[in-house]
Amino acid sequence: MTNTFHSELIAKHPDNHARVMKFSTPHGEVQTPAFMPVATRAFVNQMTPPQLVEAGSQIILGGNTYHMLVSPGMEIIEHNGGMHEFMNWNKPMLTDSGGFQVFSLSKNSKICKIDDKGAHFKHPITGKVIHLTPESSIQAQKTIGADIIMAFDECTPEQGGRDAALAAMDRTHRWLQQSIEAHQQSPDTPYGKRQALFGIIQGGSFQDLREQSAEVIINADLDGIAIGGEVIGFDMEKTREVIGWVRPILPEQKIRYTMGVGLMPQDLIDVVEQGIDIFDCVAPTRNARHGALYHGKIVKTDNWLRFETMDGDDRGRILIKKAIYKNDDRPIMEDCSCYTCENFSRAYLHYLFKDKLPAYHNLASIHNVHVMHEVCTQMREMILAG
Ligand SMILES: [Zn+2]
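Above: query sequence and zinc ion SMILES. Below: predicted holo structure tokens.
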């Protein structure tokens, strides 16, 4: 295992922009396209690390920086040897800069304010004011010890128009320089592992701003390039359009990451088709918790894939609380090879869900996360087969 980050292009789809990339980190290799389950509070709800591996996880988003600052706090994480050791995940890990959470919190100015220096928010329990700056964000991500860390950015709101998008972009570019300087002072974690730093393209829904931002991030010559903003992953039509604006200028050998994409299996297929390699989303585990289980067929069509939804389903999901599943002895998804589908029926999951039994969450998350990985596996196989 090397102690540096390295990425290379393995194969390209002949008719669209999809590709297979390989990247290596101090905790192992990843082949893309790769979905990253999110361990918001240092645990992917409700899956143990071996279950994640069995479901197909190669890399996770391990602990959101904002949440980790609030609890358990950086001292505890450092004392325990970093997040890999703390949550016992020994494969690649990415973490975020906290930018997205402070953006969400700043919608309530009593809890969080953002200015040119960074974000200032009140600890939800102690009330103590915490400053999150580019420097303190990078420092926290070093303590977390993820293999890939993110430059501190300001997420672009969709409300606010061009002025707001321009302001968030300019601030993101200034913070990028500060993030790079903080990272270069000590490129390794306290645990002796080299970290890769990704920059984030902002610019909202404006083509010229997105292109301008992409130029700045590309010129910074970082290890990978992310595309962020409130619109990404939320409005898939706009997400595809934004990727299409910047893709022509993105360097081929660098990993491309759309932040927060993965509400539905089809969303992964759509961004990979546009040339994206990695993505994260809390939706699969959140959907699972609320009883929405992915259901459809991964079908080949026009030399590419589609997640075909079924009539009577809720847009590619079955709602397991429905009485029609009470006596349904079929698995959630007929072709699914996950542990849950191979061993349990819809009737059993319906019963666990209706009676609010904790076992439900684990079995439901295993299925939803597996479906996301399965879609990635099939895309990868198809691209590799040429
Ligand atoms: Zn399944």
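The chain has a mean pLDDT of 96.
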